[in-house]
Fold this sequence. Notes:
Elements: H1 2-28, H2 35-50, H3 58-64
Amino acid sequence: MTTAIIGIVALVAIALLGWAIAEAKYKTITYTRNEEETAVENRAAEALKQNGYKELGIKDVIRTISTKGFKAV
């Protein structure tokens, strides 16, 4: 019985330690975009506009999605 309790306590301790490490990394490491990445994103957005990209609304998605499955032959 004590072995199970020790195992559960160890599991919780390891989980809390991992969570603390992840939170510390999240708060200390920041990501900033450089000029090259911003330029690539802008080029991709322009290409989408030129090719006639249109974002679908929920009604368009429901109309075009296959939700009825396949019919047996």
